[in-house]
Amino acid sequence: MPEHDVLVIGAGLAGQRAALSAARAGASVGIISKVHPVRSHSNAAQGGINAALNPEDSWESHAFDTVKGSDYLGDQDAIEIMCQEAPDELLEIEHMGVTFHRNEEGFLGTRAFGGASAARTYYVADITGQAILHVLYEQLMKHPEVERYEEWFTTGLVLDESGRCSGAITRNLRDGSMELFKARSVILATGGNGQCFKPTTNALICTGDGISMAYRIGAPLMDMEMIQYHPTTLAGNGLLITEGARGEGAHLYNARGERFMEKYAPNKMELASRDVVSRAEQTEINEGRGYPDGTVALDITVVPRKRIHEALREIVNVGRDFAGVDITKEPIHIKPGNHYIMGGVKTDVNGETEVPGLYAAGECACVSVHGGNRLGANSLLDTLVFGRRSGEHAAARAAEIVLNPPSEALLHDEERRVSDLIRREPGQGRRISEIKTDLGEAMDRHCAVFRTADGLEEALGTVRRLREEYESAAIDDRGSVFNQDVIAALEVAFMLDCAETTLISAIHRTESRGAQFRTDFPERNDEEWLKHIDVTLGPDGEPHISYSPVTITQWQPEERKY
Amino acid sequence: MADYKLRVRRYDPESGKPPYWADYQVDLDGHRSVLDAILEVKGREDGSLGIRCSCQAAICGSCGVRVNGQAKLACNTKLSDAAANAAKYEDGGTIKVEPMGNMPVLKDLIVNMDDVHWKKVQRIVPWLIPAGDPPEREYVVPPETMIDVTQSMACIHCGACVSDCLSMEVDPLFIGPAALAKAYRFVGDPRDSQTEQRLNDLAEDPHGIYDCTHCFNCIQVCPKGVAPMDQIMRLRRRATRDFGITDQNNGRRHEEAFTNIIRKKGILDERKLLQDSFGVLRPQGQIQLLRSLPTGLRGFARGKITPRKALMHERLDGMENLRRIYDHAEDHHEEVNLYILGEGETQDEKEPAMGETAGGPTS
């Protein structure tokens, strides 16, 4: 039975960063991932990472942009920490080996990004996430003292008798065996839950595992209604076109050839914050000025071809392979698409959740630095800063406590639960894949750019029906080796938790702020709603809502214009 | 929508039965991918069909498989293309999907990449080793060097090149195209202090850079344009041209012998190639030459080498043209790089067309 001071679950940027910093602090560290670490979804971050590194720039400016981008729902103490630590974090990964773009003098060069008052986005072509992820994995290879458990799926977290999180139960995908991992501190870094939506830019692995597992052991979730729709995704398959394209100068046009952002954000135009641009596009589409396939056009041809090949290479591939469009020659049709969850497991600035011993970092966590809307290129920064802080803090905490081993009975219960699911007889029940599709379509229809009470209630009804259907759904695979069927079933259950808490929070927040736009409550209402919605699983098995205050340090809420 | 036929190589290690082919039919648009088709089968028909997959956008590298015998990412292989390709073979349009080659199969389309890939990556010392303490700010380096290594950074470790590598098939210990491309990422990085040591190590390793036989398969199958073989050739050029490394594998001598013979005769002279590759004046080379005698004798026995060919080697006409090619190639050391030139573009085409970019990017 493996035992570690610090157990990290998830091996994307936040997880690997946490593991490295915990190990550097002297802890024995294990890192578990359901896929090989370099398959993690951090790969998909294309555009870059923000930091106020230039002497002309300032962390205060970065922080203010982030606060404004969050529609004043972000906690300003956490945002200050993130923006203050950004330059050092950036330099540290540069020193580790990330091949950041250089300007002509050989110094780190930047590109412009949405919602930012200065060009402070550092990047590697349009594969920034991949480049950083691979460098962190190089560091894990350099430090074999961090034990890697690759292709192990975590089914649940365990508490000791005192209510402290003291480990996790996992299934080795290669042989189906299950293990109880013991740990003094556990860090969740399991990413987002975009698979609750269909289509989404998120990978198939983004199923909200950590958010749900934390919720199930009593940790509050926060800002779960804040779901980002990215302004430039391909219709149909939902693939992402980086914001870097607009950062490099690309324009948006409606079907009449109008550069419509003039109406919505006359100053920042295409580089307004994402919620603003997505709403503008959706308004154009809804009011009949889009293309028949429900899209508007992104024109990248205004960017010089040499620059496209050097800085937007991946988008050339995506356009060619997935849309049949040469983006250097013609505009590409895009629309807003599900992309990111600002909410997640509620943590403090050290990544600690309200369950002792449990930490969360990255997209699965809600610190909250993104509030109602995340700025582009702040997510990579969030994963690194709070991944590192969680790792350091979890290591320090582990050094102080004695492990109170969780009961073996927990492992046996979980083994039984999983094997019951594998052996369940296929009766009249629905297939797991159908439940997943129904969920994704309902969420995308009702919990997207524009929301109404009726629509959200309808989606919630769907989620509750799917929960019932889940109880009788059966799977095909009875095997032990790579039984992906049972994993998919466990993931869908995680997704249903995430979707339910998102919908309940979205129904509850009767105002429009950031990514939440209620057509029945179209105004921001600071008097009533300048607060976070927390959702906790009650002893009755039902979600319960409470509130936490928004921390305001130096920026009072004001009207938001771009 | 159209019906597509899929024949998938399946294997259940727990059944005790050998691998088998299973046929499926899916009704999907032709622009959808082979992965979409497999996920459709998994979702509707048989959830036990195993394939690793995640991003569906050709960035995570999970879904490497062989489609109609060639390594691909299932997610960026269109059904219409795959079916058209399959129609060229006997099965009349049935898309064949099987696990990647050169790797043990764990289940269905899932292979074990540990030994053939991940350990090889570990082997090349895959982390930056700068000299001394880091500077207070960033390392200041020429901008083009960072763009230059981006091509090898673009590798997503899908294993397609490893799957279809012919050298790997003969020598499973070959470090392999993906790991060597990764090695270039450090050799080409001016922040690294171990350039010569790395090149020396990779040249001296009997399974290193000289184990590649230029078959081009890796370039052809790479879904990200990494062109691993080009990166291996660049490692060789750096090792020989920049550091003068002469390796125990006779890799450098062999390349030089090859080049010189063609320069002189326009056609390959195998006898001389063998002599020059080993270096007949070196005691070690003489031993190696003697050791290769059985190979030579087998060549004689099978008519590959004839006494006439061996003793009186011909010379081609039009040698002045050949010399011009050599002169041109030696004057133009430009490396082909997707991040610098567009795919399939020449230097001239790189210049923007009139009016196309008038006013610059953000005007």
Topology:
The complex is a heterodimer of chains A (562) and B (363).
Chain A lengths: L2 E7 L3 H12 L4 E5 L15 E2 L8 H11 L6 H21 L13 E2 L9 E2 L5 H15 L4 E4 L1 E8 L5 E8 L5 E11 L20 H8 L4 E2 L4 E8 L9 H4 L3 E3 L7 H4 L9 H13 L9 E4 L5 H7 L1 H11 L8 E10 L2 E3 L11 E3 L4 E2 L12 H22 L7 H16 L8 H15 L6 H20 L11 H25 L17 H4 L1 E7 L5 E7 L13
Helix pairs in contact in A: 1-4, 1-11, 2-3, 3-11, 5-15, 13-14, 13-15, 14-15
Chain B lengths: L1 E9 L9 E9 L5 H11 L19 E4 L2 E4 L5 H9 L7 E4 L6 E3 L2 E2 L2 H10 L19 H11 L6 H4 L2 H5 L6 H11 L7 H10 L12 H5 L6 H15 L8 H15 L4 H9 L4 H9 L1 H9 L5 H5 L7 H13 L15 H4 L13
Parallel strand pairs in B: 1-5
Antiparallel strand pairs in B: 1-2, 3-4, 3-5, 6-7
Helix pairs in contact in B: 3-7, 4-7, 7-10, 8-10, 11-12, 12-13
The backbone outline of chain B, from C-alpha atoms, is globular
Query: How much helical structure, as a percent, in the residues of chain A?
Result: 25-40%
Instruction: Give the C-level CATH assignment of the largest domain in chain A.
Output: Alpha Beta
Identify the CATH architecture of the largest domain in chain A.
Answer: 3-Layer(bba) Sandwich
The low-confidence parts of chain B are 346-363
Q: Structural class of the helix and strand makeup of chain A?
A: alpha/beta
CATH architectural category of the largest domain in chain B: Orthogonal Bundle
The total number of structural domains of chain B is 3
Order of helices and strands of chain B: EEHEEHEEEHHHHHHHHHHHHHHH
Number of strands of chain A: 19
